[in-house]
Amino acid sequence: NLPFWKRIGNELSSLGQQLEGSRIHKILLADEDRMLLDQAGVGNSQGQAAFLATRLLAAFSLPLLVLLFSEASGMRWIIMLLAAAAAGLLLPKFILRIWAKRIQKAVDAELPLFIDLLRLLQGVGFSIDQSLQMLSDKMRLALPVIGRELELANLTYSRGRSREQSLHRLAEGFDNEDMRSLIQMLIQVHSHGGAVQEPLKNFGIRLREKRRMNLKEQVGKL
Description:
Helix 4 packs antiparallel against helix 5 and helix 5 packs across helix 11. The protein is elongated and about 75 Å long. 82% of the residues lie in helices and 0% in strands. The chain has helices spanning 4-18, 23-28, 31-39, 45-69, 74-123, 128-138, 144-158, 163-166, 168-172, 177-192, 197-221.
């Protein structure tokens, strides 16, 4: 038997999929929502459908609670119903945005270790492809978020996409300029060859120095 939360997720996905292609689907699942779902790691069709169903259920459930428990009347009652419906539509997106921000922060926190592990694997003779495969397969505990993204990238690459295409999501999906620069470096080395250990070392030094300066600035403001 599936866990309770998985059964709920499947039911929500099934409900959302019934609305696919409808006008409601287009209104409640905008491009921004798709981007946030991608950043949160649930951007597949099932995740999109579950998010859509959650927004609809919340939009109906909160006004129902107002009907059951509110003693207001007249115009105030109508305003409360409309406010509850609006809150139901916005609350899942607000929670999703918080979740996506946490994922972005996790990617930013894992980036220095990602660079160090890449340097280590390059130093023992691994190629770029072998290094990325090793990081996704064997070092997921150290890099839970980036490791998951590398697993998706490696799967996409094994299905015939170029390395640039397979790493596009990791480079562009988290609004992280340092990650974008690192991926561009890896793609360039993968395409044209050359040593990457020294550039990775310099990149890591610049990244840590940049973070140290940002931290000093924050401390100064405090």
